[in-house]
Amino acid sequence: MRTVGVEEELLLVDPETGEPRAMSAAVLARAERDGAERDVFEKELHEQMLEFATHPQSSMESLHAEIVRCRKEAAGHAGEIGCTVAALATSPLPVSPSVGVNRRYQWMEEQYGIATREQLVMGCHVHVSVESDEEGVGVVDRLRPWLPVLTALSANSPFWQGTDSGYSSYRSRVWQRWPSAGPTEVFGSAARYHRRVADMVATGAILDEGMVYFDARLSQRYPTVEIRVSDVCLHAETASLIATLARGLVETAAREWKAGREPLDPGVSLLRLAAWQAARSGLTGELLHPESMRRMSAEAVVRALLDHVTEALEELGDLERAREGCAGLLRGGNGARVQRELLERTGSLRDVVTECIRHTQT
């Protein structure tokens, strides 16, 4: 059974005002003093962010429990120094992000300017194990049309600098400012994948392989495919659902690759439009169907995703979990909808953030 791991980026905020706090170094120091497990919590690009990584898990129940535990531990460490964490993919309140001081982050600020300084966005990355680079590239080639559906399900960033962005996942639009971000062409083999990555690094436009920000890529550190299209999810249950669907997609794609089935290839231009549509409407409007690249209701496209991975999910024992999770999101809304409903009810973005602090740990 393929293992799954999740990396989540959380926003550090003042528990009373909801304003972002540049305290990641202090939180990490506190976590170390508290005896936190090594390599679970890490710095990110901005001082207002804190990242954690789960262990690889075979059981989705175990993965869900670890996500919940890591969120609570992060809140505990932050709380000891006067801040807390919120699973928000952008800050609803205005913020002037503080870029970290290490050499890598300073290089990025010098190279990319305002795109780096404004890149305070929090994502959820899912790692799914693969047997080899060849299988991994076969998977990456076949995942591409389905990834925007994960963006729509996870969308949790409607607000930007104190205003409604008009998007459900504005984080994904800000992320596209990186020169290496976005969907990819079909590679066809591991050799061609690695050659393309090497050529990208050789341009000097990016520092190293770690800055190859494909929507799905081979991990540098682990024998996994890393899926990078999701917002950090407001609720741990949604993060677990995204991981469940990601494993189903990887398993389905691997089987297609082994069977010699050619990947769907609508082209990068249509994949970009599908990603934009998912970011724009989330689950409240229409999406582009991954097979036809034509508009359909979000419900129909989510159902198509479930149909696509049904066989794999059933064998993994995850089908009912996935069906119930998708039905719950379609009925109750993703994080973007929850945030907008909170603003409509309270009239205050501060109240939106403080309420989302509570949602983060439930």
Automatic annotation (TrEMBL):
It holds the Pfam family GCS2. It catalyses: L-cysteine + L-glutamate + ATP = gamma-L-glutamyl-L-cysteine + ADP + phosphate + H(+). Keywords: ATP-binding, Ligase, Nucleotide-binding. InterPro entries: GCL_type2/YbdK_subfam (IPR050141), GCS2 (IPR006336), Gln_synth/guanido_kin_cat_dom (IPR014746), YbdK (IPR011793). One of its GO terms (molecular function) is ligase activity. Its EC number is 6.3.2.2. It comes from the Bacteria. SUPFAM superfamilies: Glutamine synthetase/guanido kinase. Belongs to the glutamate--cysteine ligase type 2 family. YbdK subfamily. ATP-dependent carboxylate-amine ligase which exhibits weak glutamate--cysteine ligase activity. This is Putative glutamate--cysteine ligase 2. It comes from Streptomyces viridosporus T7A.
